[in-house]
Every structure is written in structure tokens, then in C-alpha cells.
Amino acid sequence: MNRSEFLNRLREALENDLGGSAVQEHILYYDEYIRNEIRNGKTEREVLDMLGDPWIIAKTIIAAGGNAATQENSSWSYDTGDEEKRNNKSRGDMIAHILGIDTWWKKILFFLGVILVILVIFAVITGIVRLLLPIVIPLLFILLFIRIFGRRN
């Protein structure tokens, strides 16, 4: 895929959910971004590989309310080439992107998975306590008995 194919796919993905001016703004943004990265010494293929699938970018833009390229804290900027600007994403966004948690049902499944792990850990701990309790309680009574009657002698 080349730059124009990437931008056309991005345009197609955005057109159904965003207005014409917002779509054009994003297309211009990514076109300028690709051109800047090429000017900074990267090949077109490297830049497009780094950006990834235009459909996923479009889903992210749409989920962000259509203004992902214009947000102040956006991970991409027109004057890119500065690695620090690309690393400005919040941890939550990064984790969601890495894990592919980009839809509501994936977020619910992730949340349920976390709860399941917590419940399993709780069950293991309570199981260990239930196994040790019959041993520990008599030992405590014996120690208490020795302490009480050991002082009288």
C-alpha cells in the first residue's frame, strides 16, 4: 500500500461517521504527517507500517469524537520527528491499543477477566486459610493454655 491508497482507505473509513470538513482535516493531517516523516529520512513503507491499518486509525478517530488529530494531547503532531511527542499517549490508551481493547464489548470482557482473576486469587487464599484453620486454632488454644497455667507454677 502506498500513501495515496492509505489516505483513500482512511477517507472511506471516516466518511460514514464524520462530516466532510472533519474527514478532510484528518486526511490533510495524515498526508502532512507522512510527508514530514519521509522528509525526516524514513521511507514511505516505514511510515505506513508505523501508522498501521487506516481502518483502525479511523475507528480511533471516530471513538475520540472525530477530533483525534486536533487534540492538544494527540500522540502525533505536524512537527513530528520528535520521539517524545509520539510517546505522550496516556498509559490507558497505550494498554488499550496494545491489547486491542477498542470497543465496548472488549472492555467489558477485559473487566470481567480482571474480576475473574481477582476471584480466583481470593478463592485460593480462602482455601489455604480453610486448610490451615483446623491446625492453627488448636495450636493457639494450646499456647494460651500453656501461658495461663505456666505462670501459676
UniProtKB/TrEMBL annotation:
The chain crosses the membrane at residues 108-125, 131-150. Keywords: Membrane, Transmembrane, Transmembrane helix. This is DUF1700 domain-containing protein. It comes from Sellimonas caecigallum.
